[in-house]
Protein 1
Amino acid sequence: MVSFEELKSKQECVCIVGLGYVGLPLAVLLSKHFDVMGFDVNEKRAAALRQGSDATGEVAIGALQSAAIEYSTDPEAIRRAKFIIVAVPTPVDEHNIPDLTLVKKATETVGKHLVQGTIVVYESTVYPGVTEDICLPILEKESGLRGGADFKIGYSPERVNPGDKTHTIDKVTKVVSAMDEESLEVVASVYGAITNVFRARSIKVAEAAKVIENTQRDLNIAFMNELAVLFHKMGFSVYDVLEAARTKWNFLPFEPGLVGGHCIGVDPYYLTYKAQEVGHTPEVILAGRGINDSMHKFIAHQIVKTMVRMGKDVKRSQFVILGITFKENIPDARNSKVAALYKELMDFGVKPVVSDPHADAEELKKEYGIGLVPFEQLPKADTLIVAVAHDEYKKLSPADIKGMMNTENLLLADIKRLYTAGEIELEGIGYWSL
């Protein structure tokens, strides 16, 4: 089996399969200590990386350009690696069932080019059992080798938070696991070269740890969203309540909002799938998902109701939405709940205009059929919806907001609570927030 010494001395190569938000930052960090190759099936992506360009914005240009990484789209190149890390997306399908297509395909590709003595580590978020019960048999079938004897497997869940320049891979503890002590020692040593590690008791424990991290966050936000709906019916703002509650030392400062993206809005479904498979109904998890998945409908209905109370003709009003990515300051709009809000508003007979300085216009059009309008070309709004807290929008003053709107009977829907009602109303604009 490959040893850490062989990897450290660069006698053997490390290969990262999948060069997205997770794989690329990991490859750049590991390249400081090991001979690293990056493999991706997307030729356009690989070509851009060779030119030192990262569309995700996760890696600084200087760090990317100085990284000694070989980028390849040729599966044959995988053969020269003795330590392989699989970091591909694991979404859900239209029925919220785990879609393991990409991780299975990546495993097949790795298996076809697997050489004896290799350790294969998975980083993709999965439910407990996927690495050993699904991926391992595929590797054995495609390679003709025996897991545990000819090659070994491990699991180290990714903890990348897109757009977060503080909690980067090298500053966050890495959970590591493997099928036996020998391979665990190598896995821990490789990751230990770039950050602190925690050795999980088993691969399934590590898989479970990852999936509950985001499920816990999803549930906490769901609680805030339920409170937002409740307190709205009682006539006051959840944010005013949170401001008071935060004065207690052990209060958890979560906030309400739209929960999208490829992690928090997806991972709970992986856990519920496995729970149901073993005969358990995860009532709390499903309840949280139900609340968060319906929040865009609540927001759309409240905006429309507010406009009606103001005497506005909803269908003849100009709606402008600022921001459509699933979180601030990143280009990723996968599973965007702002896109769901857009479509919900369309059901009321309006067609909002959307602007976002970070979103990939081509991908957005392909995924949702929504076009983007440059900020400078936005029409004057009757209802302006601040949906994502991009830094560019945080710089807008109440006077700037007024300058973006028509002349009378106007509404600012401040989903991210960037403003107070008082300062907006001083500009002669109606205000709504959760």
Protein 2
Amino acid sequence: MLLDSQDDLEVVGEAADGEEGVAAAAALDPDVVLMDIRMPRVDGVTATERLAERGVRPKVLVLTTFDLDEAAARALRAGASGFVLKDAKPEFLLAAVRTVHAGAAVIAPAAIGHLLDTFGSGRVRRDDELAVLSPREREIYDLAGKGLSNAEIAAHEYVSEATVKTHVSRILAKLGLRDRVQLVVHWHAG
């Protein structure tokens, strides 16, 4: 298997459906769960929701057939850290697993526009919602919302990457956002 061929990745379990996947994740405590959206008995969205409800800690990376179907959008809302297409190149899939493991989010590049439409519809950001951010946090919020990496923001703002990470964590907490994907969507929705 592709994942097992990597020195830094280890497959600790497999499941035939979402119900088995939730049980395996609870028992094996993996760092990352690669979750198929469409499975028998319990689908990937419901399984992701159940992991979140149980407080099971693995990051979920969803596999889907389409650029962005409603199920993938629901999985992101349920707590998935990202999604990739089933036909993604092996290098992209491996990079996605490593990225999610490191705490960042991954979205299939072809789906960004659809994702913004899906998450952004009906949400209006009010100025008072952003008033909780300091001026520096607002600058970093804008740069992160445009998709800049921590390194790029650090260079732009003449601060360290660690400082950027601290600001991003505070921004996420203040705005009630789970991760950078939600931050980008939030920024675009306003």
